[in-house]
């Protein structure tokens, strides 16, 4: 598997990319090649006096390369110019990445606005599964909040086609997962459904348990994002696994979707699986 790791060379990015446990977790799910990508924003000019941004960033990536290669991965580096989320998506497609990783402090003060906006825009437009890796807020020397990226997974489902696609990610996440909580939030239109959601969750739990994953199920009522976040605060998973429902470029840019709210507000990591890309 190939992973694309995006970095702006900030302390938050460094905490995620050089964390030994995080790298070990990526190895467990089958990642053997990591593409390190940094994007010089288009409005930053290389001709500014005394500044060579591309060279500085390449040196920064070389430092990361040494750490990641020592952990047993093949590494390729990319220094590009443009709009960060667009270039990251473009490189993910070009190198046939199986997932992308971006760090986020979950806030956007001025000093973190680039990486914060990049994480949000990737959540809306990502072309491959996206791991938003949380790091500590309001500190100059941040640490990763959930080092064991996939040890405890909270899977949120509405039983849609893309939710099932997200569940399929367990086919490789299971090698790093020990516990899982499966959650469905019922809406009024679900009340007349032919199949009890607990039965549907139980079927999926049975699959995970055959893989040795300790699993619990829960059905809630209310606002989907609020209830999913409430479960996250109760079970403190390493990551929330959820599918993105965007079907078109326009819909993906709309604010307020459940997946976007989870990416914005979750305490821990979020693993977002997008719909299949149209050919």
From TrEMBL:
Residues 2-132, 150-274 form the UspA domain. Pfam families: Usp (PF00582). InterPro entries: Rossmann-like_a/b/a_fold, Universal_stress_UspA, UspA. CDD domains: USP-like (cd00293). Belongs to the universal stress protein A family. This is Universal stress protein. It comes from Halorubrum saccharovorum DSM 1137.
